[in-house]
Design brief:
The protein is of the alpha/beta class and 308 residues long. It folds into 2 domains: 251 residues, Ribonuclease Inhibitor (Leucine-rich repeat, LRR (right-handed beta-alpha superhelix), Alpha-Beta Horseshoe); 40 residues, no CATH class. It has 7 helices and 18 strands. The strands form 5 sheets. It has a 10-stranded mixed β-sheet with strand order 2-4-5-6-8-10-11-12-13-14, with no helix packed on it. A two-stranded parallel sheet has the order 1-3. Strands 7-9 form a two-stranded parallel ribbon. 25% of the residues are buried.
């Protein structure tokens, strides 16, 4: 088993040889960036002497658990994509962490990030999930990230709804390509709560085939600059906003007329009994036989009157 330890750092040509003038323990204290990607590492060992570590590159390895990073109070960037991690653990002490890369692992539930109040980027794309399984994001974790997270990548994870993401009001870049999103109304509701959104990618989802898909999202996301890799023309946006406003106003007017109720229908006999009513010779442009008091009416003629 290959373990990342200070001994492995000492043997690395990319590290210790660059500062031979320092004793090794002193060198470890000055270390801020640690590059150990693609080294077949399966486990993180004791690195506590690297107390000033800020950036750790461990992508493309065989790591199954996140561990032994409690010492790294100053860590801001953690790259652990393309490993074998199935659960997000032991990150509670990394309260300065701003970028977390966990794409290409085996994570089914995203949780354990509640203390990362400065996390700005979370990359979770392409999890290797079991057939029929989808990536789930814990609502408690999402709420804890609501005021900090600006970049979220959840592409290619069999996701079919994102209503729990509504709380992420600071998002500026959102990627959810190649999922199973299909509910246009749900997307409009969620995106209406993201006033900072600048760039979004939903390509490869069933919802992209809905009529007016692009037009509807452009009118909801007023700050959006790029949608599915295509830039949004400002004149096009303004035209669509005006078109939607006109359509909504017309719909509101029609609903108001319907709410007022249908016209009232009165039997003509009521008018006759009351000694009032329209001239019986012509009713709404139709010729009607004049009534003879000596003869009974053959039928109960209905007069349509507009009382408005």
């Amino acid at each position: 088993m290959v373990r990342l330890t200070v001994d492995l750092i000492a043997k690395s040509r990319n590290h210790f040889k660059k500062k031979r003038g320092l004793a090794f323990p002193e060198y470890l204290k000055t270390l801020t960036h640690l590059h150990f990607s693609s080294k077949n590492i399966e486990e993180i060992g004791d690195l506590s002497m690297c107390r000033n570590l800020t950036v750790l590159y461990l992508y493309d390895n065989q790591i199954t658990h996140i561990c032994n990073l409690d010492f790294a109070y100053n860590l801001t960037h953690l790259y652990m994509q393309n490993n074998n991690i199935s659960q997000i653990d032991n990150l509670s002490n990394l309260q300065k962490l701003s970028k977390l890369y966990l794409g290409g692992n085996r994570i089914a539930v995203v949780d354990g990030l509640e203390t990362l109040c400065e996390l700005k980027e979370l990359h979770l794309e392409n999890q290797r999930l079991a057939p029929g399984e989808k990536l789930l994001l814990d609502p408690k974790t999402l709420l804890s990230l609501a005021e900090s997270l600006s970049v979220l990548n959840i592409s290619h994870n069999n996701i079919d709804d994102i209503k729990d993401l509504t709380v992420l009001m600071e998002l500026q870049h959102f990627s959810a390509a190649d999922n199973k999103l299909h509910n246009m109304e749900e997307l409009e509701h969620v995106f209406s709560h993201w006033p900072q959104l600048l760039q979004m990618d939903l390509s490869g989802n069933p919802v992209c085939k809905k009529p007016k898909y692009r037009d509807r999202l452009i009118t909801v996301c007023n700050s959006l600059v790029i949608l599915d890799g295509r830039e949004i023309n400002e004149l096009t946006r303004q035209f669509l906003i005006n078109w939607k406003a006109s359509k909504d106003a017309k719909k509101k007017k029609n609903n108001k007329q319907i709410t007022a109720g249908p016209p009232v229908l009165y039997p003509i006999t009521n008018y006759i009994n009351m000694g009032q009513g329209p001239h019986l010779g012509h009713i709404h442009g139709h010729s009607v036989q004049r009534w003879n008091p000596q003869q009974p009416l053959r039928s109960n003629i209905i007069v349509h009157t507009d009382l408005s």
